[in-house]
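Translate sequence into structure tokens.
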Amino acid sequence: MTSKLCIYALGILLSMAMPLVAQDYPKVEVPLGFSFINVHPNLTPITSFNIFGGGGGVVYNFTPIFGIKADFMGYTQGNGLKTRLTNQGFTIFGDVQGNLFTYMFGPQVKKHSGRLQPFGEALFGAAHSNTFASVFNTIHGVSKSSNNNAFAMEFGGGLDFVLGRNVQFRPVEVDYLYTRFGVNGTNYTGNQNNFKYFAGLNFTFGGTPPPPPTASCTISPSEVMAGQPVTAKIATQNFNPKHTVTYNWAGTGLKVSGAGDTGNIDTTGLAPGGYTVTATATDAKEKKNNTASCNASFTVKEPHPPVASCSADPTSIKSGESSTITANATSPDNSPISSYAYTASAGTISGTGTSATLSTTPDLAGQTISVTATATDARGLTGSCTTQVSVIKPITCVNVEDWGECTFEKNPKKPWRVDNDCKDTLDKLALRLQQMPNGQLKVVGFTDEQEVVSEQTLGAQRAVNVKYYLVTDGPTKSDPSRIEPRQGGTKGKATHFYFVPEGSLCEGQVVEGTPVDESVVKGQSRTAPAPTKKKAHKAPPAAPPAQ
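Result follows.
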């Protein structure tokens, strides 16, 4: 039953150690220490006695949990066994010795991580002792050989406490020790179910040192404007997961708060440029290789002022009128626009927000006023834009301007036709009209006194033909709404040109002639052929008078 319990215990230790594979483990272990065995000799009337000794062993680890152990132990005892036999009434002949030596080999499983490292073992080998033969000889009053060798096996386990890199304290190792000794020259052979205790030091050699703890830092965002928050985080590796790690945050010229793995940076008032945050993780329970540090950097960007644009509506006003100024500003850094302000080189500007009103007085006629809008963002940075408003003089009255004439003398077959001389005049006239932003051209057509009464409409035809050329045929096309053909009576084979500026005519100013009805008198191209004259049909001869 006892052997079965030890086997069960070994299995439990193996199942516990399997999932706890360490990254680092020693290649060789050498346990050395004190031991005693509570011996059950299986010889009546002696039920048990203790022997004391010690020894050591060597373990070679093939994996982080599995190794092969060689165990060598030696034991002896004083007069205790002799005294017990004497008390039982036996006569002692010579020394009753109690020596035992074991030589065993077998697998060991062990958890090689953490401070506490449990292990289990199953060893098989041999034992050498004179104990059983000495007791048998005394009890039976015979003298047989007292030195015997026997089969031995051991099941059990213990616990190591790590003191340092290469030294461990073994406070307890308990084993079930089975031996099968007999007495030479007799039929006696017995099974001994013994209890073994061992304590001492375990020295370890080889293996790679555990990796040092490391840390990595991240920061978000990596670019900010002064005043915006920044958050840094630290992630650690290779620290003992069972220990509490403390964190410290620092930065040159920075205000960093936070005691955990997150640091909060206050960027208020920081000048543009790069900054570095340092985080240090510490395991206070470890004596060495207990810290790791990392850095993370961020940039405080150069602030950009608002970008503003503005416009005026209308851009040209009469003195005494007003214009609406509209401004719009945005911040490249997404800072809110807090206010708008306006200034003007003349006049009066009033308004807040994105709109203001420019008011003028009569004395500003003829001036160009510059209006500047200034936008201010939440940081106090400003951006400006400028627009202009022209103040024109009010027109009270206008005078008719005489722009010359064009004659129709050289083509008697087409007396209404715009000839080459007239064409040159009209080309120059069209350019001049184009340069005038406002006003209207009055074209007055005349007839000659010698032209017959049926041809008196030639004046109207000449006027509309001039307009047709200026609007359609000529190289410089004029606005038809700015040209008015008029019929002016008998002054010669010509058309006369008058320019009337925009506004009311001054007193006494008139343009001769009357407007031509262009739905009746159609304009003709200078290349249009002359109309064909219809021949008169002769009347049939009159019939002779009746007789």
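Note: Helices lie at 2-17, 80-87, 131-140, 420-434, 458-473.
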